[in-house]
Design a protein that fits this description.
Elements (H helix, E strand, L loop, with lengths): L1 H8 L5 H7 L4 H10 L3 H4 L4 H14 L6 H10 L6 H10 L5
Helix pairs in contact: 5-6, 6-7
């Protein structure tokens, strides 16, 4: 919560001042930001919703294409999705890749 406040307030206040006001060290703030703890908050599409799109694309393609071609389908629909994320979800669901 503190780190999210620091990130949101960064354009208005200096990071060192924010960290001093909150009991947070500046180095821990940068470490938290680099660790990717809030990846789920940055995702615009949950894994479950993406899996629905993957299943539809996989069925439309006749179940013969792997993750590279399936990955392109959400991108055609203006969804930002990472290759590795699609690949991992397809492997988790045991789609052929």
């Amino acid at each position: 919560m503190k780190y999210a406040f620091v990130r949101r307030s960064k354009p208005v206040w200096a990071i060192c001042g924010l960290c001093r006001a909150l009991p947070v060290s500046v180095s821990r703030n940068y470490e938290h930001r680099a660790s990717g703890v809030d990846i789920a908050q940055r995702r615009h599409l949950s894994d479950e919703a993406l899996l629905v799109h993957i299943s539809i694309a996989y069925a439309d393609k006749g179940g013969v294409y792997g993750w590279p071609r399936i990955w392109r389908q959400p991108r055609r629909e203006a969804m930002r999705v990472g290759k590795l994320r699609v690949q991992q979800l397809m492997q988790k669901q045991r789609y052929a890749s």
